[in-house]
Write a structure and sequence with these properties.
The chain is of the alpha+beta class and 322 residues long. It contains 9 helices and 19 strands. Helix content is 22%, strand content 32%. The strands form 4 sheets. It has a 6-stranded mixed sheet. The chain has a 5-stranded mixed sheet with strand order 4-10-18-12-16, with no helix packed on it. The mean pLDDT is 92.
Length: 322
């Protein structure tokens, strides 16, 4: 190991100690913070934490019991069309090989269709990865853009419109509230958001890989041509086409879970990620809240509940950091 690499690794460790303490880890709180505690110890320091399900008032929502019933959701949302995202791999907003050149990558967005909630649940439950000659099909309700209030308004009374201690500390209400419904086939690639994110898991579990904003150089962010999937109901097949006119999207190149046959290649291409300080890995269980500060890089996988669904609500709020 040369001296430059050693100095760089020492710098990484020093930065982490300054922002996360001498034993860097993600705090797990057993009681909700007061607004001033949240402001002083987490918001102002850009430091994540998990509010444990053991806190009696963590998620004291009707949703924690009502949403475990698919029948309740189907009845409540019977007249609510929603936006369903479809991909062949479960990886929307991620890097995939170019249709015309498999040796190059593009930034692929999901096919989106408006459908009834009942059909959406059927599609999510029938999701599957590619197996031999069978084409993969993965459905995920992940519209964002304030979709909870825009598309799932009938469920509004089942959970809080905001997280009160965060709203008071930040000084404004959430700009967007989103609902996420999927299963183990859906995965979110490494990215960052420009919002303070309160992520509440209602059923199932979410598995996050986290890196602080200071590790931006380890993400190998590059600009990739944008493409979009289309899906044919008749053939059950996907097509991926580059956008026209061309558009380029800056995106993280690193995949923290490469296939075994690709791992050596990934380590060779992205040594700063694989040879640097280990990322933080946390699981957010049903009834828990993750505070994910703005600009933190995160990769997300999920484990469904016993009926095959993972459901979460997140709150995006912008704030000006001094």
């Amino acid at each position: 190991m040369n001296s430059t690499t050693t100095k760089l690794e020492n710098l990484w460790e020093e930065v982490r100690e300054l922002s996360l303490g001498t034993t860097p880890q993600i705090d797990r709180l057993n009681t909700p913070p007061t607004p001033i505690q949240f402001l002083r110890h987490y918001l102002s320091q850009n430091k994540p934490f998990i509010l444990s399900a053991s806190a009696a008032t963590t998620l004291n929502w009707p949703a924690t019991t009502l949403w475990t019933s698919t029948t309740y959701l189907l009845n409540t949302l019977s007249s609510s069309p929603i936006s369903l995202h479809l991909t062949p791999t479960g990886q929307a907003d991620s890097l995939v090989p170019l249709p015309s050149n498999p040796d190059s990558l593009c930034f692929a967005s999901a096919a989106v269709r408006k459908t009834s909630f009942s059909d959406a649940i059927d599609a999510i439950n029938s999701s599957h990865k590619k197996d031999g000659l069978n084409v993969g099909f993965v459905a995920y309700a992940q519209q964002q853009n304030d979709c909870f209030r825009a598309e799932y308004g009938a469920l509004a009374g089942d959970c809080d419109s905001d997280i009160s201690w965060a709203t008071e500390a930040i000084g404004q209400l959430p700009e967007a509230v989103n609902l996420w419904i999927g299963n183990e086939y859906s995965e979110t690639s490494f990215h960052k958001d420009h919002y303070e994110n309160l992520y509440a898991v209602v059923t199932g579990e979410k598995h996050f890989v986290l890196l602080p904003p200071t590790d931006v150089h380890r993400m190998y962010i590059k600009e990739y041509p944008a493409a979009k999937y289309s899906y044919s109901e008749e053939t059950g097949e996907f097509e991926l086409e580059l956008e026209n006119p061309p558009r380029y999207v800056p995106w993280c190149s690193v995949n923290p879970f490469p296939l075994p046959e690709n791992k050596e290649k990934e380590i060779s291409e992205f040594p700063l990620y694989y040879n640097g300080p280990k990322p933080f890995k946390v699981t957010v269980k049903a009834g828990e809240i993750l505070y994910l500060p703005s600009m933190w890089f995160h990769h997300v996988r999920q484990t469904p509940d016993n009926r095959g669904l993972t459901i979460a609500v997140n709150y995006y709020t912008s704030t000006r950091r001094v």
